[in-house]
Each structure stands twice: as C-alpha cells, then as structure tokens.
From TrEMBL, chain A:
This is Simple sugar transport system ATP-binding protein. GO terms for molecular function: ATP binding. InterPro entries: AAA+_ATPase (IPR003593), ABC_carbohydrate_import_ATPase (IPR050107), ABC_transporter-like_ATP-bd (IPR003439), ABC_transporter-like_CS (IPR017871), P-loop_NTPase (IPR027417). Keywords: ATP-binding, Nucleotide-binding, Sugar transport, Transport.
UniProtKB/TrEMBL annotation, chain B:
PANTHER family: ABC TRANSPORTER GUANOSINE-BINDING PROTEIN NUPN, TRANSCRIPTIONAL ACTIVATOR PROTEIN MED. This is Basic membrane protein A. PROSITE patterns: PROKAR_LIPOPROTEIN. Keywords: Cell membrane, Lipoprotein, Membrane, Signal. It is found in: Cell membrane. It is a lipid-anchor. Its main location: membrane. Residues 44-356 form the ABC transporter substrate-binding protein PnrA-like domain. It holds the Pfam family Bmp. Residues 1-21 form the signal peptide. Belongs to the BMP lipoprotein family.
Automatic annotation (TrEMBL), chain C:
The keyword Membrane applies. It comes from the Bacteria. This is Simple sugar transport system permease protein. It holds the Pfam family BPD_transp_2. It comes from Cytobacillus eiseniae.
Amino acid sequence: MEYVIEMLGIRKEFPGIVANDNITLQLEKGEIHALLGENGAGKSTLMNVLFGLYQPEKGEIRVKGKSVKITNPNIANDLGIGMVHQHFMLVDPFTVTENIILGNEVTKGGKIDLKTAEKKVAEISEKYGLAVDPKAKIQDISVGMQQRVEILKTLYRGAEILIFDEPTAVLTPQEIHELIQIMKTLIKEGKSIILITHKLKEIMEVCDRVTVIRKGVGIGTVNVSETNPNELASLMVGREVTFKTEKIGANPKQDVLEINDLKVKDSRGLPAINGLNLTVKAGEIVGIAGVDGNGQTELIEAITGLRKTESGSIQLNGKEIRNFSPRKVTESGVSHIPQDRHKHGLVLDFPIGENMVLQTYYQKPFSKGGILNYKEIYKKAKGLIAEYDVRTPSEFTPARALSGGNQQKAIIGREVDRNPDLLIAAQPTRGLDVGAIEFIHKRLIEQRDNGKAVLLLSFELDEIMNVSDRIAVIYEGQIVAIVDPKETTEQELGLLMAGSTRKEAGE
Amino acid sequence: MKKRKFGLVLSLALAAGTILGACGNNDDKEEGTATEGEKESAFSVAMVTDVGGVDDKSFNQSAWEGIKAFGADNGLDQGKGGYDYLQSKSDADYATNLNKLAREDFSLIFGIGFKLKADVETISKQQTDVHFGIIDDVVEQPNVVSVLFKEQEAAFLAGVAAAKTTKTNHIGFIGGMESPVIERFEAGFLAGIQAVNPDIKVDVHYTGAFDKADLGKATAAQMYSSGADVIFHAAGGTGNGLFTEAKDLKKKDPAREIWAIGVDSDQSAEGIVEIDGKEHNVIITSAMKGVSHAVQDISKKSMDGNFPGGETIVYGLAEDGVSLAPINDEVTTKADIETAVKEWTEKIKNGDITVPGTIDELANFKAE
Amino acid sequence: MSSRMKNIIVPVLAVLLGIIVGTIIMLVTGYDAGAAFIALWDGAFGDIYYTGETIRQITPYILAGLAVGFAFKTGLFNIGVEGQLLVGWLAAVWVGVAFELPKVIHLPLAVLAAAVAGALWAFIPGLLKAKFRVHEVIVTIMMNYVALHVVNHVIRTVLSNKSDRTADIYASASLRSPFLEGLTDYSRLHWGIIVALICVIIMWFILEKTSRGYELKAVGFNQHASEYAGMNVKSNIILSMVISGAFAGLAGAMEGLGTFGYQSISGGFTGVGFDGIAVALLGGNTPIGIVLAAILFGSLKVGALNMPLEAGVPNELVDIIIALIVFFVAASYMIRIFIDRIGKKGAK
C-alpha cells in the first residue's frame, strides 16, 4: 500500500508533559483518514509537528516514502501539505482571490496580477465543486463559504494532502452535508485528507480509516468499515460510553418561563426577535433548534437581561422580568450557561476558584461589608470542583489553564449549584468530547428531574433530539413550530429550520 | 582620597599663583593679602541651566559661553575645581543640581533664569559659605548676587529700528510666556515704536511657551498675512518659527519686504535665505541681552575677591549689559536707523529718558 | 517556568539589558562606563543628601505608577495621569495658599483637595468611555493639554497677579519637615513618602480584599463576562478612572505640598505622569512591583544628574540609557519569548 504520509513513533514533549508519545499515523493516497481523540489528547500537537510548527523529540516523518525533516510551515507547503484551520485566517474586507494569494502574490510589473489569479481560483473552485465567487468579499459570504475559501487557499498552493481541523464545528447541518460532498470530490481528484474530529458520526459517514489517540498515546488505527461508534468512543475515552442519553419521560408541571409577543432588535438595530411566544414548564427541557442567526442569541440575551427588549413580556413564575438588569434576573432565579464560555462564562485570568462565585461574590458568606472572604470562596469552589469533576491542579489555577471540557464543567457546576428555577443552556457541549458531553447531558436531565425548567439552545441536531422533551424551531425571530423529538426526524427539523412550514416539511 | 586630590590641586594652583605673582603685576596690589591669594587661585565657577538646556540658543547658552570664556581667560579646566554646568530636566532638578555643585565646592554658582529663584534662595541659606548668582530675578541674601537686565532698553532700540523699517506701518511682537522679563521686552519695544511713530499698529501675541517653534511659525504667518512686515520675538526657541516663516515668505516672493528681529544674542545667522543664488537675510537686527558679559563680569569680580554679595546688579545700555546688534545691510533705511539708534542710545545712557519696563509704565511714557 | 517567576525575571532582565546596551554605547563613544555607573550610584545614594532627594523623587513616581497601574488592572489605559497630577497640584497649592488653618486640618485638607481634583479630572474620560465608548486614551491625552493651560491660567490670574508662580503655601499645609531635612542634610525629603506607601496599601487592599476590587478586576479582564455576571460595567469603568485619578492627584500634592511648596506656570508637562506609565509597566501593575519600579526610576532620575559632573557623560547619553531600559521593559514580550525558548531547550 502506498502511503503519502507516514508519522512513525512520534514523541513530543513540553516542559512537564508528554503531549505525544509513540504515535503512528499512516495516510494512504486517496483516503480520508480521521484523527480521533478527546480534547487535549494531543491531536493538534501531532498536526503541528506535521506542519513544521513543532519539532518531535523522537520519531520519523516520511512523505511518499522519503524521510523528511519539516522544520517550518513553508517546508510543509512545499511538500504539498495544506491545513484548513478551525479558526479561519482570512482578512474580512479582502476579496476571496486577494485572500487566497495573500503572502503568495503573483506580480506583473510591480502590480499584483489579480486577473490571472482570479481565473485560476475560479478554475480550481469549479474543478472541486466549491462554487466560490472569486470576487466576493469575505465579510459578505457565509461561514461555510469562508471555509471553502480556506480549502481553496491550500489547493491554490498545490496541496496534495489536506488537514481539516474540526471543520464541522462551525457549520449548520446542511453545510456539513455539503462539506462532506466536497471532501469526497477532493478524494476523487486524487487528494488525501486527514480529518481531525471528535464527532463519531462524521467519521462513520465519510472516513475510510481512523487513528485514535488518548492522552497523548497512540491507541491504534482501525478501518471504519469494521467498527462502530460505540467501539470508537470507548477507544477514545478508555471506557464504555452511552450515546442515547438515558432518561425517563418528562413530567412537566406549572409554567416557569412564559414569553409573549417579544420583540428585540439586534446590535445593528434591525428586528431580531419578532413577536416570539414560548413557554417552558417546570420539569421539562425545551430545545431550541434553528440555523445560526435566526435570533437565538438575542432571545437568550433578552431573557437574561443582557439585551434591552422593545416590547412584549417575559414572565418568570408569573412575575415580569423583562428589561431587568442581569443581576436582578439572576437573583430572580435564572441560571445561564452562556454560548461562548470564554467570552461570557469565565474570567479566564481569574483562578478557577474565584470564577465559581462570579455572580455571588457580593453575597454572604463570600463577602461581608464589602470585604471578600477568600476562605469561604475557596471552600465553595473546592466543593464544586469535586462535585462536578472539574479536573484542575488546584482551585487556584487560572481558568485559562483548564481544558475546554473542564471549564464548561465548572460553569455548569456554578450555574446549577445556584439552584435556579430556570436553567438556560446555550450550546453547552460545543467543542467538547464525548465524555464531557455525556456528563453535561446527564446534569441537564437531572435538573429537569428535580423539577426545574431547562431551556436548551444548540446547533447540534443530535443534541436537541436526544436531550429535549419538546423542540421549538426558531426561524427569523419567531418560534415557527413546536415538535416532539420522538415523532420527528432530522430531515423534518432541517426543513423547518430552513423556513418551510410544518405542512410542507411533513410532505 | 577626594580631599587629597583637592590638596594637590590647591598646592599646584598656589604654586602657579606665586609664579604669576612673581612676574610682577602690580595692578591688584592692594587686595593681594596672602589668604586672598589662595582663595583667588582655587576659584571655580559653575552654573545650573533651567529646563531649556545649555544649547537653547538663548540665555542658557549665552551664560555657558560666558563661563567658558571666563574659564579660558583664566586657565581653568572644565570639571570639578574649574568650570562646569549642570543641566536640569525638570523643575525638580534645580535644587538637586545647585546642592550638588555646592557640595562639590564650587566657589560661585549661577542659577540661570527666574525659575531657579526659589531654590537659590533656599540653598543659599543652607550653604552660607558658597557664593551664588541668580539671573533675571532677585534673591536678597548676603551670599547671592542678583543680576537683572534692562531688556527694555535693547527692545526700545529694536522698536526704533522696526518703526524705521516698516512700510505698512504694521508691526508684530511675539512673546513666549508672560513674565516680568518678557514684559520688559514688550514694553520697551512698544515704547521704541511709539517714539518714532505713534500711529504704527502693533499686534502683540503670547504663545505661552519658549520651546514651540510650530506655534511661533503659525503666529508669525497670521501676523504677516494681516499686513505686518516686521516682527520681533522674545520667545526663545518658539521664535525660531518666526524666522522659518519669514524665510519661507521671502522665498515665495523675494520682492516682498519681510523682516524679523532677533533676541538675546545676535541671531542674524538664523535669517539667511538663498534665493536664485543670491543670499538674503530677513533679520534686521537683534535685541541682545549680555548674559555672557554679566556672568563673566561677576565671575571676574568674585575671583578678585570683590563678590558683590547681597547686591542687585542691573545691566543696561550704560553698563554694556544690553545692546542692539549691527543693522542688516539689506535694509534700505539702514543709515537712517543707525543715526536714530545712536541718538536714542545717548539719550538713554544720559538718563534723558527712562524706558518703561512694564505695560503700566508704558502708558505714562512720553518720548521727548 | 511559572508565570510568577517570569513576571519577576522579565523586568529584571529588561533593566540589565538596558544597562548592557548603555554600557556598549558608552564604550563605543569613548566614555568610561564603570565611572558612569559609579557616578549614577553615588548620585542616588552616595550621600545622605542624595538619598533624601532620591526618596523625594520616588514619592510622586509611586503615586503616578499606582494611578496608571490601577487603571490598567481594570483594562483602562490612563494616559491622563500627567493632567490629573497638574490639577491635583493646583488644588493642593490653592488650599495651601488660600487659608491658614491648624496643621491637623490644613494639611489633610490640601492633600484631600488634590485627590478630589485628580479624581474629577479623570471622571470625565471615565464617563465618556462608559456612556459613549469614547476611547479613554484620546480623551485623557486631550485632557492633559486642557489641564496644562487651565492650570497656567489659574496660576496667572487667580493665584497670582500675572506672575509666573503662586505664592508659597502656608507652613501648615506643607509636607516638608525640618526633622527630615535635618536627617538628610537639607534634602527636600518630605512626609509624602508615607502618603505614597499608604496608597500602595490602599491599592493592594482594594484590589485583593474587597468585592469592589473583584469587580474592577473582572471588568478589566473580561467586560462581557462581568456584564453576564451582573456587574455594572459602566460604573466600574468610571470608578476605576476616579480612583486612578485620585492617585494621580496625590502625586501632584507631593510636588505642590512637598517638593516645591508652590506651583509655577509651565510650558510643558512635568513628565512624572508619563514616567508613571513606565513605572507601572515595569512593576507589572502590582502594588509592590510599582514600589520597586519607582525606586529604580527615582534613583536613575536623581543619580543621572551626577553623571555629567562626576564621569563626564553627557546628559543625552544618560537619557538614552534610561530610554533603553524603558524600551526593553516595553519590549518585554520579546524577552518572554526568549525565556520560553531557553526554557524549551533546557527541558530537552
């Protein structure tokens, strides 16, 4: 079998830790090869070694059978290795073509030869079915399109081997579907792909083989056709994992959150929520499904007091809380697991312990007469860290130093511990691995079983289908349908999210 | 160690003094007691600049040139035991610098500029065996000599020159920061103009700074464009902007009558502009303030054992403390100006007229 | 290497690099570097008088550094310390010359006036930042000029009769003390150093011990998370500027009630406020770090005055060496990368 890339027995150390230990990854020509592992397992380190950003302490890299030393990314480029980054490296006001040739400009008499470049970009785009307009500006195109520009960029530079770093994290279900088609086209045209992911479904759908790493150690490579998601998950996590979240039927009681005819404007002053009605009862989880940008963010900001609303009503336990300040909303009994844990959920430079009292630091016993009682704060934090299995060297470690999953566990611990009547969870599992996802889902369901109202916002249809008791589909600032997860399909939901009415979707 | 070195210098100086004395110069016979002789030979002098620094093209520089000249004349070396200066970077440094020099046993220490007044006053009380000089202000202490200038007298002559030069009967005055010294310049200048022609219009503007050439240029541009053809400045570094503007205008239109008058020292070198291979100079003259002369004069007196402690010495035209620089040859009325300047100089020296030193005095001033 | 160690090592390395490059420059230009540094040391500590002067110089540096550092902690860049210092100075001197009161009332009143004046001056950019998102850097720079000219005008027209300085303050408002002067051979050392050190403790206490300090820091690190957590971001921004301005105003009081005892009109800034930025930067915005950095800057400033006379090094060269140290501090990012490289190699 011909290997285009072989990474043999790679070991990479950082002061105090071994990030990669004896990992072997062999990429066949024309295959899609998944690199699977939990967050922090060492996937990125391994790819950075391949891309020339790190030098391995041990091991060998071969490209097309020849042993090579990749000491910087330029060498990787010359060897035909291209990386599609998770966080796009694009200049917003530039056009697609300008972005693609950036750093690689072809000049003609001192002037950049845009015409020729545009032609070439259009050719490549057509060949691989990317459908990108070379003259469009980055700021005007969708996230999915931007990702295609990143793919184009590597192809333009002659990449034979493409590394995709968690490419589906930012995409809608439809876009994911399209991306998979693109990847298949690339393979047909003779490219080879390494797909970094922790989403088992994608691996099963598109990949040929999968290499699993766990805690920096290579576990092995298996053929996708000979395995199943359960096996992959236990290889990755090192224990049995259940997917179908176990839960008993919901037992909804009185209304906790009642939203009527709510109107909210977005940051640009355009209507984002347009007469929205929604009810969440005690003892149920309501999932909000929708394509990003249909008012989900504004809805949650409106409930939690982070955004001023225009009109309508938001009632919590029968009391109006519309346009309350965030603190008053919190004190009324609302907890909020924010969508962006780095931006909203944590003060990353604070110790994780101090983050545990982010909303309650001014209350007794943490503060008396304006003076903080660190002993009480850290006592509380220590308890929560233990209870929610937050893995951190100590409660004094800065939140920044924790892995994403542990940061999220800390936030969930903090929010759930306040014992709210309403728990809002916005994308609570984004970017997390299977183990952490499982943990978080259990906690959400536990809250429901304790008679709390839970409002779940997620762009992962799986999650919505699995966890929710009712699904509210949001489209252009309105709830357009309420469906029962047991009676619907992803297909139907996808169409509803795209604006079809229930009837059309059913046909 | 320090003491021993000092002793060596002292004995060397003593030896030199004896040899010089032996050469038989009987000029200073009367004061030549033995102890005086010793003191005289070990004489050292230093100065502390204000924040303008020693290369300000104005009175700090002038004072330092005076001290250098004095040192050269008397065979002193720069450094401890000879002559030196310390530069101040902020107002807080004056006291430290003055103290430092006093501690290094300089015989005479000048504080250059009225900003040092308070610190000279304090430190002179503490270091009673050191002699101090303060320029442009008065400190009444037995070990301090205060040096004032009659800037108004030089400015008066500058005013005469300006009034005799202007064709538009419109003259400008650019001041630095408002202070008694600059007020003397202004009052004298206005009086000089008035003495020649009371109908001449004069624009007066204070820029508020001594180190903002850009402000000087902008102010000058405004004055020239409103019809003034002669501008005098008493604004230190700010005045350099005046010269730049005058030269720029001259370059644009060589036929136009554009004139400036310098201050403190003969600034004629700043006014040279080359147009079509021909050299022009836009500076008529400068109102010179003899800081250099005064510093040398007092150093000399002090070395000779005649330190005028507790006195306030006022240097005017009569004492050669202030003067007017030579008149530019390009000025068509040069002869006329020179005659008038000579005439007024005599009157001032004789005490026939008293040039006003403040704006209030100017109101009561009558030439003739 | 732990980040704490790095926070200590980086500034120390910056200072060392500044000295090394300064030495090279002196050697290349033909000056005796050894003598120059000895002169620098002697000029700062060689005599009890100089030590007194050095401590006097350190005093406003500590306060200016606290002002910048406190705002930094809350994510604000207060470049207006210079202007707040000037209005604080003016307020202190104004109270100092306007009344004659018993010392126990007069001195605290003058000090307080300075703090309030500085706080008010900083309140304006704080308010504009909080309400209209006007960047505080721009506003504070402009406020510096406004302060300079307003202060000059008040000195000229209100506090004196067209003179270039105010009268001396009454002794009852002065921080000067014959005891300290006697102790240090007539230096201008005054009780302000005690005020400065108290302020160091106040800053530490506010930031580390109070729930308000917790909020201020949270807002500084992450406004979004603070808002999410129910903190009032706007009022914290304003409060941070006000406290910062109060420190700056006190720095002015040190000059007005201690070093000078009067205020004179000035064509330019004192520079203390701007040096405060470097002090805060070098001190890592921590109270104790700011004290150490202020000691360094104060010693350099006073010691440098001795270099021309004692070692014949021109003033310009002294300025270059100080600038180099500041440069290396500001470029500490470079040093950090360098340390990381070394660390990596060491681990191999």
